[in-house]
Amino acid sequence: MATTNGYTNGVNGMHDEAHQLYPRFSDIPAGLDIPVRGEDGDEAVNLDLTELIDETDELCDLLENENAAKNYWITIALAYAKQRKVDIAISILEKGLSAHARGRSEDRLSIMTCLCWLYLDKCRHAPRVKPSQQSQEGDKDDRTKEHFIKAVIPILNEAQKMNPAYPPLAMAQGTLQLLQASMQQAKPAPTSREQSERTILLQQAAMAFDRALGSSGGKNVMALLGKARASFSLGNVQGALQLYQQALDRAPDMLDPDPRIGIGCCLWTLGHKDIAQTAWQRSVELNPDSKIAHALLGLYYLDQSHQYNRTDPEWEPLYKKAMTTHTQTAFKIDGMHALTCANFGDYFLRRKQWVNVERLARRAIEHTDVNAIASDGWYLLALQSHYEGDLSKAADQYNKADQARGADERGYLPAKFGMAQLRTLMRDFDGAKFRLDKIVERSKSLEAMTLLGVLHAEEVFAAQAAGSEEDKSVEAKRAINSLEAVRMAWKDPKRKAQKDAAVLLNLGRLYENDAPEKALSCLKEVEEMQMAEISDYDLPEDMGPSEEEEKQARRLLLAPQLLSNIGCFNFQAEKFSEACEYFKTALNASVQQRNTEQLDEEGNPVVDDNDALVCTISYNLSRTYEAMGMDDQANEVYRSLLVRHPDYIDARTRLAYLSLKSNPSEGAEAVKGLLETDPGNMDVRALYGWYVHTVKKRTLALNEDAEQRHYKQTLQSYDKHDLYSLTGMGNLHLAVAREMPRDTDQHKEKRSKMYARAVEFYDKVLTLDPKNAFAAQGMGIAVVEEKRDTAAAIQIFSKVRESVKEASVHVNLGHVFTEVKQYSRAIENYELALVKSREREPGILACLGRVWLVRGRQEKKLDAYKTSLDFSRQALEAAPDNINYRFNVAFVQIQLAQMIISLPEAQKTLVDVEQASQGLDEAIESFGRIAKEPNPPFPRGDIEQRANMGRNTMKRQLASAIERQAEYERNNAERLEEARRKREEEVRKREEEKRVAAERAEEERRKIREERERIAEEDRQLIQKRMEEERAREAELWTTDDETGERRKREKKPKEKRQKRKKKSEDSADDDTDAEGGKSRPRSGAASATPATGSDAEGGSRRKTKKRKLESRKGRTTAASSKYKSKDIVEESDDEDLEGVAGAAASSQPTRDEDMPETPGADEDGAQTPGAMGIEDEDGEERIVSRANQRKKVARILDDDDDDEAEGQDQEPEGVAQAGESDHGGD
Fold first, then answer.
1. In angstroms, rounded to a whole number, what is the distance separating the alpha carbons of residues 817 and 5?
2. Who contacts 120 (Cβ-Cβ below 8 Å, separation ≥6)?
3. Nearest CA-CA partner of 1142 in 1056, 1029, 1058, 1225
4. How do residues 983-1024 score in pLDDT, each as one tens digit?
5. pTM summary value
């Protein structure tokens, strides 16, 4: 039947009748008749085995007095055991054993074996340690497994002395050794004594089951199950799986124990979890009360639920099925089952129902014989203690959970992680990191890597907060590596790991200084995670339908701190519009959260004063407005901040700066007022120093410099380590050193000392702040200007460029690259500086003009001079009153005129020369005005001398150059016109040749196409013709039967015997004789020939073969009447195509029958004439048959009357040889 037990689990063969499922003790009868001796003869006392009383003294006395057989004692004891009254059953068997003390040894052996099994059953259900709770059945027996193991050993030893080969004893011994092995505590080292004892016990158990299996001829299913259990415990999972399958194949009806449970466990261990679930599900279908099957199915669905996040809709039905459908069912069946209690304890742990957790965990520890389940129980207790804050107790329980699974390398990973967490709570960070490193090396646990990365990160953050100078780069790198490994694991679909915002936030803090773009990426990922977690019910009802509006509504529900930090990173990346949007959203979110009433645990409203957060975000928004050039909006926000907080010095400082930009006089008063109000504020003093720098009069006397006095006062009176003042002092010394004369050795020495003093200030700043880019940039300028160490300067500026996003860094790099004559890189850096400057600064334009001029001198290119002049004019347009920029334009014009004069006529044009002449006039005029200025950039004499040179010499040279250039271009124009005409003629000629070649190629292609079409048409006609001929030939050879309608070959009529025609050259008149030829053979297809079968169609008699006499070669050559004739047998072909041969024959033979020779004879030279033989069919019409299809071996028959027979055999006649060599006869 289809519903027979076990068919889906490997049972082969079919059964004629339905299976019956037999549970344990199913063979115990409902009643038992005990024979007694009476007065009337033997009688019987009926004992109802379904309703047994606990008092058994009378029953045992009856059995003993009546000398009852062993079967009665054993059956009654098993009946009590069936009702779980195992202690009474053991008592009955002990009394039975006493009653049979002098009986047969076989009887005693049976009772002792049964007694062993009952003790083993008690051991199986006894607690591992002394129980702290009463069992579900109310049993107050607190004896442990060890007690029953000690009780069964002497009985088993005594029984083995009586009969060691007794099979049930082997089974009992194997089961006992399995229980003893399960009681062994797992140890860390695989070579330890305890571990070795466990292995030895399991091996001995396997051998005991082998003996039991061998004594039964391989039919003992229980022995198979025992051996499978031993193999599984020894780690031979594949072998155990085969044994379980054999047991199921032999006993598909067995439910207790159920081989399907073992099959599922093996498959689970091998990684085939879904197939394991199928086996356990089948076990539940056959036995709905199987507690172990339900418990294992609960574990399966728990494992499946762990593949999803709790927010995933797939998680809830799986978890519900695991706990409600299976685990709860198993608990209702047996509330003391260890595995079920461990699973159910985790359920109550998530709900923090500590009473239930402790009760179930204790049951799991006390009633299991599996170390892993005991480990789970201790872990539940450790988690409870951890939650309750009892760290010492939790540490002890974590350690026991780890020891139960072997500790060290083989221990329980969650317990190890729990101990690392406890170390963290105890502030033992080194111990926690040590344990976490061990866990990560073993399993790559995401939780362990996360905690390890956070611990390293916190160490870095603590050092930063304390201002420690200790290098924490190693810890930062370890933290980043650990947290990035966790982040990468999120992308693995197989692991299905849940993202953790703490990982990203810590990474963002670690990347904040060195990689701000990565920090921004982490914060944006946190933003996406938190936005995805917001429920649709939390969104406002008046939200718009667009996706952007929904996104903005979700963003308003995020933490303002997160949004503000994202805005700050965007500000640093100069993404001011995005930063502005985030600051606005953060400000709105903070205001919205401040207006939301929050309640504490007692229901009282919580006053959340986030005014500081609002002020910080508002200030950041104002700074963003400044960066975007929106000074009015920035002013408005700053003033609103000062309304709420008049002492907000940062806002007052920024307002003063904005006033300096818009109204310098008013701004100056504001800055002075700030300094008077708070002279000790370093930010205010820095702003005042910057203000003095912009308005002071430049001087080479440092003692008279107002900026220097301000910085000196700051360092002496307020903060000697003020970085801004130290950097400003270095800049002052650097500027003075740059302007100092160097014409004498004394001046050079003073200049060097000034540079050295500037370097000292910069070095002091870098000592206090190694990452101060401004000091590093000043150091680089000093190095390149004083020591001409361009390589070191390039290295310094390149590093500074990564930190300082300002134009000055690129300007300095441009200067250095110009110095080393790398003009392309210098131009690139100047252009970058021009882009980064908010306004087109004339100084950068002047630098571009200078570098293009130097490049033009080196490369001798006129375009470079023109580009230099263009940038110089742009600089002058930006600052028209600057005398230096006017000098630069005039100087470039003079240089351009000199370049034009020196260039050959072929490299310039008349327009270039005329423009240069015009520019020269402008330069002479500019030099004249510059020389009259009170402070010219160069000595007046030099400027006037250069103007006179241009007026007297260069003007005449340019006039001559204009004449030469005009003459050159006139002559060159004629040559160019002639060359142009010839070029056009050549182009037309080539185009004509291409056209002719194309037409010729097209004509060739047309001919080829037509030829192909013609050949294709001929092929089609030829194929059509052949098909028609084939159909005609088929119609000739085949016909349709009138009776059956089937197609069959036509039956040929037999040919009448006719005389052969004679050759016209012969005089013979006898029509009955065959014609002979001197040089050719007779026609083989004569009318008198028989059909190919050789039988007569009418009479069926074989025609008598004609015999011819073979003459000798000599006689044939001398006698004209030599008699030689060969016979060709021609067979008709009913399926060969004769068209080609027929055509050849028609062209080579006469059209009239009377003119056709009897056979195709040889010509006068003896050569055979190719052709086909003519054969007449039964209708009298001649058919053309191919020689290749008609030729057969020539039959040579000697005449009986020939007297020269011997001579014909010894010497072959010449005619025979010719026949054999011809195309018409022989082989």
1. 90
2. 148, 152, 172, 175, 176, 179
3. 1029
4. 888 999 999 999 999 999 999 999 999 999 999 999 999 999
5. 0.64
